[in-house]
Amino acid sequence: MGGGQSKPAADPLIAEWRKIRWGQKEEDLQFVKDYQPHNKEVKQLRVLLHGPIGAGKSSFINSVDSALRGRITDRAKTDAANSSSKTFTTKRRIYKINKGGPGTFYPFVFTDTMGIEGAEQHGICVEDIKLDMKGHIKDGYKFNPYCEISEDDQYYNKSPTLEDKAHVLVCVIDGSSSSILDDESKRKMRRVRTAARDLGIPQLVVLTKIDEACKEVQSDVKNVYKSKYIKEMVDKISKDLGFPLNCIFPVKNYASEIDTNHDIDSLILCALKQIIDSGENFVNQL
């Protein structure tokens, strides 16, 4: 071979590093449909989402809604034009998912929050996330990057019940970012993680935009657990933030699709099932 010939690129696909039964979507869907909290003090599990700006928190809520309803929805508003430079969500919003008939909802809710930004006094105040975990912030509160909510604020809940508190904390991270997280964002997220640990709240990671991160996943979402790049991202998140590998779930949010897709749903429902299991375990340990 000539000395000027370059070496072939390394294979972007590796041996499957996590098993998922792609054909079990209906089983996971049925699990979600049948779920009811066993603790009578809790009518609905509260899933608190946090993470960097543009990571896809609102899009994940929409994707769960779409997977459960069998059609594309966009109730949690997103900003496709400016999703990576400035947070679009500024107010605390709670989202219920309709279960079919009028006024019937699944027994879990998502709390969407302002994004975390690396710079100080930008993005959500970490203390607000901690207070939200404890149930002290009401729906509709407009986050102030400069300071936490005051106890005198009309949106401050002085006497939270178990149902007001977060039952599972989900960190949403953009898998398509080359650096994933800057140092200051990691520092803020570790503070959130430590606070949740002290409260005993279970924590998971949803790794979004896997199709943007890896061409092989973009061509076939079933390649997600064969992707060398996605595996490296999962390992990096585990190392940087301390999450166990089995608590990190890659998903593809619905973005350009006009119809739901069986394989995309499978990843979303796999993550949702673990979120529900973790929250259920938490409320039954109290």
Q: What class would the helix/strand composition place it in?
A: alpha/beta
Shape estimate: globular
| N- to C-terminal distance | 68 Å
**How many DSSP H or I helices?**
8
Describe it.
This protein is α/β, with parallel strands linked by helices. The chain has one domain (23-285): Rossmann fold, CATH 3.40.50. The protein is 33% helix and 13% strand. The chain is built from 8 helices and 6 strands. A 6-stranded mixed sheet has the order 2-3-1-4-5-6, sandwiched between helices. The radius of gyration is 19 Å and the shape is globular. The relative contact order is 0.19.
Topology, please?
Blueprint: H1 25-34, E1 45-50, H2 57-69, E2 93-98, E3 105-112, H3 126-133, E4 168-174, H4 183-199, E5 203-208, H5 210-213, H6 215-219, H7 228-241, E6 248-250, H8 262-285
Parallel strand pairs: 1-3, 1-4, 4-5, 5-6
Antiparallel strand pairs: 2-3
Helix pairs in contact: 1-8, 2-8, 3-4
Brief description of this entry?
This protein is an alpha/beta fold. The protein is built from eight helices and six strands, in the order H-E-H-E-E-H-E-H-E-H-H-H-E-H.
Keywords:
about 290 residues; alpha/beta; 6 strands
